[in-house]
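[retry 2/3] CUB domain-containing protein: previous attempt timed out, resubmitting with same input.
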Amino acid sequence: MEKYFVLFLVFLNLGVRAADFREFRVFEVSDVCEISTGVRIYVDFGHSGQLRNSGVESNNLCFFTLVTCPSCSIRLSWSPEDPNRCEKFLIVEPPYNVVREKYICDPQREYVSKTRALSLQIPPESTNATFTFFYESLRNVVEVFESSGESTRTIQSPFFPAVYSRDFIVDYNISCLRSDCRIRIIFTDFQLALISTVEFFDVNQERFQIYSGAFFRPPVIFSPNSSIRIRFSAN
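[retry 2/3] CUB domain-containing protein: success.
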């Protein structure tokens, strides 16, 4: 008897303006803090770099924004130089206003963006410490595994119910580890722009279905086998 686990997907739409990008390079915090509007750079897929601080004090809130390719995300990690210091910093993913407060001494010292842009904000009181941030552009892929064959998972657009940003692509690789398992996909919210798409690929990477914002809501979809790839392209 075939087993199913249910997947719910929800998407909304937003248009954002293009921005100017700086050339990729390694930065010092002292250089970033000298610019009141912060520094914004483009990081291509596979490129990486670092933001270093040698303890130079600043009275400014320092902004360091990374932007990568539409089908990429930013992985940020950090390392304190002084184990006795625990400075605070903030992570924001424009254009969303969700602020994540982090500390250099956190046991979990890694963050992967949900979108293609990440803004690192360092308050003045944290600039006199020594630390290093490492960043890397990764392919934007979400892996979902299910071993039991009977469960329900939810996948949603970044920061749902906020509207999604454009020029954004993400692949969801969904696998059930039992050969007799199939995946049932149910859309509960589906508000896409007309040219945005959701594509479905089988285990051989052959597309067997595609839906755009022209559809009110796709029907229930069953995977042909125990794995499926869903590509959401926000255009």
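[retry 2/3] CUB domain-containing protein: The chain has a mean pLDDT of 84.
[retry 2/3] clearing retry counter.
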